[in-house]
Amino acid sequence: MAEANLLQATGEAFERAIDIEQRACEIFIKLSEMFAHVPDVSGFWKDMAEDELMHMNILEDVYDSLTSEQLQTPVDDALWNKIVNAESFLSQDLTSDIRNLDEAYEMAHQMEFSEVNSIFKFLATQIVQSQQIEIQVTEEITRHIRKIMDFAQDFGGRAWRGDVAISSLERSSRPRPASRT
Q: How far is CA 64 from its chain centroid?
């Protein structure tokens, strides 16, 4: 359930959106580590993490350009609810149950098509009205989403992805399930 918006300020919305992008970056870094034994796939996840860092930097630049008055302006309830929902989704341990590349892809797809990118786009383009920033952000999001959409073409279909297990180091570092007796 979303927390009530008690006239949350734009500044807090930016701070929380930056944290959301940071969490997405950390998830992609973890995926890169989980598939380090498949260099191209690991590189793909690292590239996605770099995109999230770019999103953070854009949000930080816009945040830094705002006046104190703009930072204190209340945000729309719909935007605030998206922020709360994205935080809730990303607060889960999204990688601990992943056993193969298909599960990693499905989780990443879900994350990328959640509210994360719509929050980024809104805050980066609608608070400061700049056609140049809007074009840059729209192109960046399109490029970023295209990577996920092209994943099967670049790295194989669902059956192949299901056969690519996480690294043995990752499996051995996970707690073992309780034995059944």
A: 22
Distances (CA, A) of 113 to 60, 66, 70, 119: 22, 28, 29, 11
* Rg of the chain, C-alpha, whole Å: 18
Confidence (pTM): 0.86
User: Amino acid identity of 130?
Assistant: S
pLDDT per position as a tens digit, 108-160: 999 998 889 899 999 998 887 788 888 988 899 999 999 999 998 888 889 99
Percentage of residues of the chain with pLDDT beyond 90: 70
Total residue length of the chain? 181
**Across residues 28-45, what is the average pLDDT?**
96
Q: Contact 155/101 with Cβ under 8 angstroms? A: yes
Cα–Cα distances in Å, from 25 out to 124, 134, 137? Answer: 18, 22, 17
Neighbours of 173 (CB within 10 A): 8
CA distances from 135 to 47, 94, 116, 125, 140 (A): 21, 31, 18, 9, 8
Cα–Cα separations (whole angstroms), residue 9 to 12, 16, 21, 103, 106: 5, 11, 19, 37, 34
| pLDDT of res. 1 | 43
